[in-house]
């Protein structure tokens, strides 16, 4: 199930929004999508696979992780892309951004963005 959108790593390309077959995300004016319908996630990993900056984490669990476990996923972010051979370790600015200019530079926070 989709667990995190890492706002500081997001480049606002909305590839996750377009790739999601169940319309889990909502686009926002800030450019960082929100997890609007987490319970609709089918755990297909498409959003994580297509995110060019590893700004998403999808847990293999079909139910939401407890907050205490979400805080400990740093080593897992981007792991699905790496397993696909699509790489890992992208950083904001290392990929040509398609989308609005986003305010980067805040301390990295890994928080759930669903409402």
UniProtKB/TrEMBL annotation:
Chain segments carrying region Disordered: 95-115
Listed PROSITE patterns: 4FE4S_FER_1, 4FE4S_FER_2
MF term (GO), any: metal ion binding
Domain 4Fe-4S ferredoxin-type: 1-30, 31-61
Keywords assigned by UniProt, alphabetized: 4Fe-4S, Electron transport, Iron, Iron-sulfur, Metal-binding, Repeat, Transport
Name used for this protein in its record: Ferredoxin
Source species: Gordonia spumicola
């Amino acid at each position: 199930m989709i667990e995190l959108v890492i706002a500081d790593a997001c480049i606002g390309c909305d590839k996750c929004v377009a790739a999601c077959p169940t319309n889990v995300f909502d686009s926002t004016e800030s450019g960082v999508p929100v997890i609007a319908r987490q319970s609709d996630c089918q755990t297909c990993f498409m959003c994580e696979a297509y995110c060019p900056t590893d700004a998403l984490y999808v847990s293999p669990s079909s139910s939401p992780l407890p907050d205490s476990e979400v805080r400990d996923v740093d080593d897992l972010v981007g792991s699905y892309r790496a397993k696909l051979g699509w790489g890992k370790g992208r950083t904001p600015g290392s990929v040509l951004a398609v989308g609005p200019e986003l305010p980067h530079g805040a301390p990295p926070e890994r928080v759930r963005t669903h409402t």
